[in-house]
Structure formats: C-alpha cells, structure tokens
Cytochrome P450 (Gymnopilus dilepis), 535 residues
Amino acid sequence: MVANLQLTAGANVLTALATHMWLKTYDPVSVWAAASVLLCAPPIVTYGLHTLIPTSGSYNPALAYAVFYVTLFVSVCAYRLSPFHPLAKIPGPVILRLTKLRIAWAAYIGKNHIYIKALHDRYGPIVRTGPNELSVIDKDLLPQILGNQGMPKGPQWDGRAFTDGTRTFDTLIASRNTAQHAVMRVPWNKAFTSDAVKNYEELLVPRVMEFNDRLKSLSASGTAHVNIAKWLSNFAFSADFGLMREGDKGQRVKMMDKAMYWVVKFVKQGIQDSIVRSQKELKKKDIFYYMGEASGGSETDFKMIVESCILATVAAADTTASVLCNAMYSLLSNPEKYKTLQQEVDKFFAEHDIDAGAQLEGAEVKFGDALAGLKYLNAVINETMRLFPVVPTGLHRAPEPGTGSKVLQSGSTVIVLPEGNSVNVALYALHRNPRYFYPHTEAFIPERWLSSSEDKDFVTVRDAYIPFSMGPANCAGRPLALMEMRYSLAFLIRNFNMEFDTPKHDPALWIEGLRDQYTLQKGELHLRLSSRNRA
Ligand code: HEM
C-alpha cells in the first residue's frame, strides 16, 4: 500500500515538474493545450504506471491530482521567486513576482494608472509588475521598446480580433506581427497625410459650429447647467452618428464607455454602422474615402472598411473628448491659466476677424494652420496630455515571436527579455516623473511648454513626452486629433463663460471618476455656462 502511494506520488511529482518545464519553454501555449495537459496528465500517467506495474496496487486518481497540482504550484512559485527567473534582478513587490492578481484588481477598479505610478515612485523607473512583465518609465528605453528597432504589440492584444459571429476582423491596433502591422498601417498613413487632414477640416468646422450653436441655444436665456463631458463625447461622435441632433439614441456613447469591457457588443454595432457608411458615404473625402482608395477596390475593401470604421471610432471618439474634458477641468481649477488662454484666443479671433457670426456658417472658413501657431493653446493641450495621457498604462510590447529575446539597455542596466515576457510603458507615471518635468510635477503649468532648453525655471524633457506613443505603431490619427482639439477648445473658450457648477456638483469627483480602461475613461463634469457678450 505504502509503495503504491509512493509510486503514484513520485510519478506525479515528475509529471508536474515536466509540465512546468513545458509551460515555461513554450509559453504562451494555447488554452486548449494547457487545459488538456492539466486535466489529463495526472490520471493518464498514474493509470499507465499501474497498468505497466501490476504489483503496484490500486489506481488512485484523487491522490494523483493532489500531488500533481501541489507540486506544480510550488514549482511555479519557487521559479518565479528564484534568482533563475530572467526578470529576477528587477525590483518590485514580491506579490507581483508571483501573480498579477493585484494588478488585475487595480485594472478592474480602473485605477491601474495610480497603482503603477505608486510602484514607480517606490521602486524606480523599471519595475517588475508581474511574473513575466515589466513596467518602464526610463526615457532612454522608449526607442528600444516602442521605436523602429523596438518590439511589436504584446500578449495583452491576443484574442482581440473582432468578430461579428461569422467573420473575424484583424485590427491594426491588435496586430502582434511587425510585417503584418506594417502592411495594415499603409492605408492609415495615406488617410492622414497633410492633404487628407485638410479635407477633414472641411468636415470638422461645421461640426464645431453646430456644437457651439447647440450650447448657445441652451444658454440663450442666461446660464445653462451642462455635463460638458457628455456633450464633448457626443460632439466627438457627431460626424459619424449625428448624435448632436438626435441625442444618443443608439446608446453608442454609453456603450463606448464600456467598450473596453463589452467589445463584442460594441463591435457588432460598429460593423452595422460601417456597413451604412460604406454604402452611403465612401464618396466623401473622409477617413473612409482614403481607406477605400488605398485598398484599390479589392475584395478586402469591405473587411478593411469595417475594421477601420471600428478602430477609428474606438480610437478617435473618446480620446479627444477625454483630453478636452481634462483641459476644461484643469483650466477651471487654475483661473489665471484660463484667463491667459482666453486672452490669447480673443486676440486671435479679433486678428483673424472671425467674430462676424455669418462668416462662421460656411465650412470654407478654415484656420487650422493658424490655430496650430497659438503657443498658449498648444501648451494647454500638451500639459493636459502630460497629466492625463489618454492611454495611461497600456503601451504593451513583447519580443517578436521567433527572435528568442530582446536586449534592453539604459546606462549600465542591461535587461534580457526572453519571449514570453513583456513590457508596458506607463505614460501616466512617465509624464509625472520629476526627472523629466520639474518643478511642481503634479501641477498644471502650461508655461513649462513655453520654456527654452536654457530656461532655468523649468526642466521639460520633450523626449519623455509621448502622449501619442512613438515608432511604427504610434497614433495614426495624431494630426486630426490635434486639429480637432485646437478648434474645439478655442471656440469653447471664445464663446462661453464657464465655471464649475458648485456647490451642486463637487469638481473633485472628476478626478475620482477617471478610470484607466486602456484609454482614460471619464465621469461627469458639470459646468455653469453662459454665452459671452460680443461687440
Ligand atoms: C487626443 C487624441 C488621441 C490620443 C492621445 C491618442 C493616443 C494614441 C496612442 C498612445 C496610441 C498608441 C498605442 C500603442 O502604441 O500601443 C494610439 C494608437 C492609434 N490611434 Fe490614437 N490617439 C488619439 C486620437 C486618435 C484619432 C482621432 C484617431 C483616428 C481617427 C486615432 C487612431 C489611432 C490608431 C489607428 C492607432 C493604432 C496605431 C497602430 O497600431 O499602428 N487616434 N493612439
């Protein structure tokens, strides 16, 4: 009997160790392969043994499972804590060396950005945030991670290809293969040349006008109480879905807020919308026009338009709205900065004679290039994206499969990152690193963007500021996003007096409501708003 137990236990200890070796060597393995081994290995090995050695007593599957799982658990924990792990020398809390459960909790409550920043404050610019994962905010490592010689997207994007139930749609943002990503990126680059962006300006200007008109009519009889966060989200969606006129009837903005959780539901709606677009609006010179042109009318057209529609909608809409809301919050929290911006904008509108209402009706009035020259406006947008980056922790990269490993070096620190391990660049912590932005790192000071490199008042290390990421997978829509934000902010500041709607709504709740769900999701921002008197 004792010999039987020893035999079963010994066989399953060896099986568990072999399973750990297999997982370690070939990770990531498919869920099915892992589940099959974990479920079937103990009974098969034990049964086989008892069949081969008839004198070994009765077959005991419960004991087999118990020994197998306990051994596997101990082996995995010991390895993750051991000096033999490739990330062993990187500092970080012990619990994160063992499991990502703590990070998963922070992500679940939407506060991953705060948690990761606290880790960097304590452990330095390179932290081990999981058994096989690092978080990095060392600017010298950014090109090696995100740049042309960097790495493709990491495993967080596995399984994120969209499906409508019958077809699968690969997306640019989720592509983990460098060559495939480069091919998929071509139409996006064509869709954001400076000529193309000038065409989008024609579509954008009437939207900005309509947005302002709607707010003006709300405040026609004095002061309007508005949740500007909701209005700005609707504004960002308005070109595609006509929300400003109809309200959020299709619940797309609401769905969007939860999109990172309920991707499939959102995508089914996105596919439906893209079918409508591809049938109706491809002739217009919008993003989809250029996408269609780039594909040359091939049979992949439809697939690409669908994929692009979904990605552009997800990538474009709540990103710009998030920055605009955070800019409003920051300006209203710093009245002297608000005043400085208002003076600059008023001067600009006067100089360009933009105040003659009728002139603004037509989309032919375009001054995006001139707005790009407004120093303080741009400084406000920069400072907002420094403190509130739209992708706070999610720039995830991993060594290209088949390359073995990636070597990262900063000064005397050398990290060898084998396949199966990954790196996150946490913009929220990077942009709030006092090494790069000093003094008053946590404060909203647009002036730091106006300083020159000789300026002694501010340290502003521009290489450490990458709100649109960098390298081959940087934000494809950057020029459009910047243009949209400049227009929207300049017109809001020019046309309205705004203040927090206190005491009815506590502005502090705005910060509490910000959630890191890959993009920075927002809560409500209640303002009192009145139209500014015009001469
Ligand atoms: C303030 C607004 C925006 C910010 C801060 C922003 C930021 C970002 C960031 C940080 C990434 C890179 C993710 C990574 O490296 O893993 C990204 C990717 C992307 N963004 Fe934006 N974005 C904005 C608006 C837009 C707009 C308006 C569009 C298009 C209409 C857009 C389209 C994309 C696309 C297609 C990608 C994927 C690029 C690739 O994987 O090659 N974004 N964005």
Summary: The mean pLDDT is 84. Residues 192-254+314-531 form a domain with the Cytochrome p450 fold (CATH 1.10.630.10). The first strand starts at residue 126 and ends at 130.
